[in-house]
Amino acid sequence: MTDQTASPLSTPAAIKRLKRRRAADVRFRYYGMGAILLALSALVLLALSIGSQAISAATYNVVRYEISLDPAIVAPPGEDTPEDIARNVDGFWELARDNLLATFPEEDADRASRTELSEFITRLAVLPTARNVAAHPQLIGHSIKLTAPLNDDLDLYLKGQAVPERRVKAGAISTVTPDEAGFATLTGQGAFKPVQTAMATLESEGVDLSQGSVLLTAGRATGRLTGIEAGNARIELLTGSLDAFTGASATARIIALPEAQRTVSDRQIAWTLALKDMGRISRVPRWTLLTNSDSTYPELAGGLAALVGSLLTMVVTALVAIPIGVLAAVYLEEFAPKNRLTDFIEVNINNLAAVPSIVFGLLGAAVYLNFLGMPRSAPLVGGLVLALMTFPVVIIASRAALKAVPPSVRSGALAIGASQMQTVFHHVLPLAAPGIFTGAILGMARALGETAPLLLIGMVAFVGDVPKGPTDESTVMPVLIYSWSNNAERAWEPMTSAMIVVLLAVLLLMNGLVVFLRRRYERRW
């Protein structure tokens, strides 16, 4: 006879509970997918935010100068040794400035214009050329091409980041009538109507153009617009020849910001556009970001000293933290008796992993600098401080890797007569090595990105030379990023983002090494 008793899982209440449980499972999956999407969105936003600025720093504009190496200037009597020539920055800078004055001879009579023109190139920008001539003195007396970075403000202008402006194509200019000295009237059938329309549009949007400038450029000539009336435009010539406007279609640059509130003047813009039209300004990759040391000038600054300092610091950290941390983990996991003392040590190791990094910086400043008298701003001290911070991570990861080795490995080794020491170092430790190295590299990656403890031991100092050893004055990449981000000039913003990208690339390389080691050598039991 068939059992007519209903199953308890088929009751309405049970079915309702089952539906709720399945709905909760579906919601949980959606929550997980939403968390992943949120994390990926934040990562993409971070990458776009940093990358958009770093792209600007990946290239910069350089200017080429034709200079004649006059012995009286680059190697005057009594200062003609290679060392003197390499230090003669002022002499080489004077030759570059004279080349600019020869390019724009109309500015030589005005002291203020000469000063503005001299800002095209910083004095230290000629240092590589001075060192090259010192290494090859046979060049003295001959003409050479000197290539130097453009002033950072003008570089940003050419990249469209320094001065907001609207460019408008004007029509063909038919005639040019000189007025008083330096002024002229340009005439063209409807040539300036697009300019008037653009200015009216900006004013309707609430933009005040009364204190701004409108620059008209045709080839190497640039003039400042002083008025437009009945299709005629009156300009003040800033550079070049008025003949360049005849029959040309000029480009108008409408700049609303007053000249006094800008980092570049109208004349500097005019000279820059003229040099660019001559082909003397070109945009090239900024390899100096990785080959130069730090500088007070953004166009000359680089991160080589910080890269080398980070490498030296990480070497010291690895040599101290990894061997001691692994041996401490081996002892605690394999040899130490289980009592209150070892329990106390284990609790404190776990607590140390959660201590803020700045506490280790205070400890390092008190012990290494004040008590032991070790050198400030040295990778040796920085590495020792970061080693203190990395110890708990290495110990915890190493103990977890040792625990993952099956007890049968230990039992088998002991059964064939191996001592406990041989069992651990010949069998257990090699099998746990991939996990140990994974934890060690993750700890090193964390240490590489630390800033606070290194600030407290003086590694924030300006370092212009590449350190040659762990006791030389140095800085590291995170501290350099912190230092550049505090500088006032706008040119430091893309430089900071570019150095962040370099730091992230190093961290990704280290994390990629972790993934490789884990997949290549990890054993699953």
Number of helices: 19
- Per CATH, the architecture of the largest domain is Orthogonal Bundle
> Do you know the CATH topology of the largest domain?
MetI-like fold
Please estimate the helix content. Answer: 55-70%
The CATH homology group name of the largest domain: MetI-like
Through-space gap between termini: 52 Å
Mean pLDDT: 88
Write the element-wise H/E pattern from the N-terminal end onward: HEHHHHHEHEEEHEEEEHEHHHHHHHHHH
As residue ranges, the low-confidence spans are none
Residue fraction in strands:
5-15%
Shape: flat
Rg, Å, rounded:
34 Å
Based on secondary structure, the structural category is: alpha+beta
Largest sheet: 7 strands, antiparallel
Count structural domains. 3
Strand order of the largest sheet: 3-9-6-7-8-5-4
Number of strands: 10
Q: Which CATH class of the largest domain applies here? A: Mainly Alpha
